[in-house]
Amino acid sequence: MKNATIYVVDDDLSVRKGLTRLLRSTGYKVEAFGSADAFLMHERYEDVACLLLDLCMSGMNGIELQQRLEHLDDTMPIIFLSGHAGVPDSVQAMKRGAVDFLTKPIDEEVLLPAIEVALERCKNQLAKAVEMNSIKQRIETLTQRELETAQWVISGLLNKQIATQLGIAEKTVKAHRAKVMQKMGVSSVVELVRLCSIAGIDPMSAQE
Amino acid sequence: MTKSAPDKTKTSQTNSRIMHHPSLKEFNRALKEFSLGAGMPLTDSVQSRMDVALGQIAMLFGFDAALLVIFTEFKAARWFVGTWYDPHLPISSETVTTFDCPWTINEIKQGHFLSVLNLDDLPSMAKTDRRTCMQLGIQALYGIPLHSHSKITGVLVLGAKQSGYQPATETIDQAQILGQILANNIQQAEHTERLSDAIEAAETGLWSLDFSTMTFWATEKARFIHGFDATQELSLDTLLSVVHPDDREVIRQTIELAATDTRDIRVEYRVVLDNATVRWIVARGRSYDSAPGNMLQLTGVCADITERRLAEEKLQNAQALTKAIFDSVPGLLYLYSEDGKLLRWNKQHELLTGYSAEELKDFPVDQWFNEHDLNKLQSEWSKVFIEGQTTTEFNLKLKNGSFAPFALTGVQVEIDGKPHLVGIGIETTEKRRAEISLAQLRNELAHATRVTTLGELASALAHELNQPLAAILSNAQASRRLLSRQPPDLVEVKDALEDIIRDDKRAGEIIHGLRNMVTKEQSKITHLDMNTLVSEVASLIHGELILSNVSLELVLDPDLPEVEAGQTEIQQVLLNLMINGIHAQRLTDPSSRHLSITTRHDTTRVIVAIRDHGVGIQEDLLLHIFEPFYSTKTSGLGMGLAICRRIAEANHGDLWAENNADAGATFYFALPVAMRKS
Q1: Which of A96, B94, B102, B464 is 20 to 30 A from A136 via CA?
Q2: Measured between alpha carbons, how far is B627 from B637 in angstroms, rounded to an integer?
Q3: How large is the ipTM?
Q4: Could you give the CA distance from residue A192 to residue A198 in angstroms, rounded to a whole number?
Q5: Which residue of A has its CA nearest to B552?
Q6: Chain A residues contacting B via beta carbons under 8 Å
Q7: From start to end of B255-363, where are the E strands?
Q8: Which residues of B touch A (CB under 8 A)?
Q9: Mapping DSSP to helix (H, G, I), strand (E, B) and coil, where does residue A156 land?
């Protein structure tokens, strides 16, 4: 994934320079920062990227930056770097979704696979985000009735049952259903279920 | 003698006698005046006073001329001569001398009173005498011999222009007394002057204090050494005005004593010349009385003894210094003659052996030793006088009979051309051993505390060490990739290698610093730059600062002088204080956590101040925090500050703490400024 960007945040100049040189020699684009604040101020483009983040820094430390990014809904995968393996810190970092927690000095044989994993995750996240976006856009085109109909459809009810639930004619349900399938761009109920699941549209539950 | 005088009087035949009686009152006045002139030196003024006195005698007894001859061997003149003539006499311009009346003088010198009523009575041998008398218009002569200690010391010749004139028999005694006093005065004056000459030659001044007037007479030399000029009138106050204030009282007292009784006095005092120069003077003298209790004068000599006094003082200082050095040696210090007698020793020698100074004088060396050690002593002793020196160990017998082990040295020294043994002895008893091991123990404890402190820092130090190692690995692996490229990126590889070298050095320094701190050895006392030490230790705690979220500020005095101390110990103190400063802020809000380290100096000290924003120290604990095993922390030995203070004190410095006005505490670590490097 050679077009990816690796962000390096470490307050130690030597470490920063070393990592930058190593990652560039493997073909990544590298952007290095001496502090969490400098990183946050920097404008980033939405492409495949990951963050190599030093845990122990003066000023804002690694864990704090991770929290800040979470607040900002920034899902960039993070690989933590630490001078010493403090168990509590690493557990907290991993719980919060860090890709990996590496102890300095870091061998490239460990670092590069971790970066690949992170970038893969990033790529997936990006793809998901793109799909989600298009699903959401399609869902927004549905009318209230069509959305309700879709929710009943994915809960597995037959047209007749949906008509009973909505108190409308079965024929009308059929028309809504066709419209939903057309607008969402799907040809099967299975596909509709997947899109709704991704978009967080829950199926209706029948009250018998 | 006076009674028989008339019998002895050789009188010529005469017809008429004209007698004269002076009143008793007139005689007594003359007697008093004459007595007061005693002791005066021979000067022109004295000569004229004598002549006047001679005139008084002549007139008192009704004579018209007088001649006083004193037989003296003073200076070139054989005789001293005084003359007086009545102003009405038809005197020729020539003065009468002894050569002018040889027969008369010679007659009286035999001890006879001479009475010549008429010039015609003079024998033919007295031709010259007769001519002289005729020239002066003298018609009658009366001669009185003057004695001192039954020796004829002079003659008094009285002449009258009236022939047949004679003193009354009962007044001859009076004339003789006056003549004698006059002669004595002159002899005494001569004596004084002769002494004065001798004294001047010996750089000594001569002086005399008249008790009736309380004025001094002093020779030129005596005046000179007191800073007086030749003509100045000298009273007691004049003298005291130049005397050093501290010495005035002793002079007053000495003079008061001398004024009560005949006695010898001696006083040393200082005079201040030109308000600056101090001169030491010794004055010796003796007081004389005319009758018991009636003191006349105090006469004596004085001399400048400044050089002697200075030499004495110098010697005393030198001796005091030697003694101080001797006595300050913490063990035995001894000087033996070659035959084994103790000649000099220090105070400690007396204390350690129990012998007094009297007992130690000439103490035989073999008496210190057990009998079975005497052979060994003999061989060590010869070693000193053959090879020049020795170092050995012996049990020495103390006064109380017990033995104590000593390490002894002996070195041969030449004193007055003879070989002697000088050396020291250090006690090696259990007590000493205990002291030595206690010192070792303290060192061990300091080391343990250091290691513990470093242990607390372990994770922070690992972080610190891992940074350069991480950079090195990354750079090395990057280089490998850069080299395998086609073509290899050599420029970038070179940069990477330079970074590797720099980071490797950095790691090395950290390890070196750690090794120093962990070493058990006490570090050597050297000149140290406190700024460098502060920076180095600050880099050791870099990780700890980050982990604890504490910001650090260094304010270093650019003109800081060096201190002289052991590097490891000083680093330990700094490390302890910095870590304490960090840990003290655990309860502080992270945004206010701040450690500030300041170096500064005054003329004598270099001071490092370590200021935190922590909880501070309870006032009643401020004094206790430097006590051993006192700790507010759950980890550690509780020895940190106690050892820090001991290190500070061992390096002649100080360590103390104060609470800040706003928040937290400041620890001050002061060390003396090092002496300039030679």
Answers
A1: A96
A2: 12
A3: 0.74
A4: 10
A5: A58
A6: 11-12, 14-15, 17-19, 21-22, 24-26, 56-58, 61, 81-84, 86, 103-108
A7: 264-273, 277-291, 294-304, 332-337, 342-345
A8: 459, 462-464, 466-475, 477-478, 481-482, 485, 489, 492, 495-496, 499, 502-503, 506, 543, 545-547, 549, 551
A9: coil
Give the Cα separation of A177 and A200 in Å (integer).
19
Q: What are phi and psi of B625, to 5 degrees?
A: -65, -20
> What CA–CA distance (Å, rounded) separates B217 from B672?
63
Q: Strand, helix or coil at B267?
A: strand
- Backbone torsions φ then ψ of B213, nearest 5 degrees: -110, -10
- Min CA distance, B569 vs chain A (Å)? 28
Residues A169, A172, A174, A180, Cα dihedral to 10°: -140
Closest of B303, B258, B261 to residue B282, by C-alpha: B303
- Helix (H) / strand (E) element for B667: namely strand B665-672
Q: Characterise B212 by phi-psi region: left (phi > 0), alpha (psi -120 to 50), beta (else).
A: alpha
**What's the one-letter identity of residue B501?**
I
Query: How far is it, in rounded angstroms, from Cα B654 to Cα B565?
Result: 13
DSSP letter assigned to residue B101: S
Partners of A104 on chain B (C-beta within 8 Å) are 466-467, 469-470
What are the pLDDT digits (tens) for B123-143? 888 888 888 888 778 888 888
How many Cα atoms occupy the beta-carbon half-sphere of A190 within 13 Å? Answer: 0
Helices and strands, counts by H and E, chain A: 9, 5
CB contacts, 8 Å: A25 with chain B: 478, 481-482, 485, 489, 492
Of B495, B503, B543, the CB nearest to A14: B503
Our CA-based measurement puts residue A47 at a distance from the nearest CA of chain B, in whole angstroms, of: 25
Q: Do A21 and B495 touch (CB under 8 A)?
A: yes
Rounded CA gap, B478 and B499, in Å? Answer: 12
Quick: pLDDT tens for B627-670.
Answer: 665 555 545 445 678 778 878 888 889 999 999 988 899 999 99
H or E stretch at B315: helix B306-328
For B334, the token pair is 């001894």
Any long-range contacts for A168-173 (C-beta under 8 Å, 24+ apart)? A173/A149
Residue B622 tokens read as 């401020």
The DSSP line for B527-578 is EE-HHHHHHHHHHHTHHHHHHTT-EEEEE--TTPPPEEEEHHHHHHHHHHHH
Tell me the pLDDT band of B677, cut-offs 50, 70 and 90: low
Name which of B613, B624, B615, B601 is nearest B670 in CA terms: B601
Say how far apart CA B374 and CA B384 lie, in whole Å.
Answer: 15
Q: Supply φ then ψ for residue B154, to 5 degrees.
A: -175, 175
> Would you say B517 and B647 are in contact if contact means Cβ atoms under 8 Å apart?
no
Distance CA A76, CA A78 (A): 6
This model's pTM is above 0.90: no
Instruction: Label residue B500 left, alpha or beta by phi (over 0 means left) and psi (-120 to 50 means alpha).
Output: alpha
Separation CA B155–CA B143 (nearest Å): 7
Amino acid at B450: R
**Which of B474, B486, B541 has the most A C-beta neighbours within 10 Å, making it the best mutation to test the interface with A?**
B474
Higher pLDDT, A69 or B449: A69
Per-residue H/E/C for A36-80: HHHHHHCCCCCCCEEEEEECCCCCCCHHHHHHHHHHCCCCCCEEE
* Exposure b/e, B221-257, CB count within 10 A at least 16 = b: bbbbbbebeeeeebeeeebbebbeeebeeebeebbee
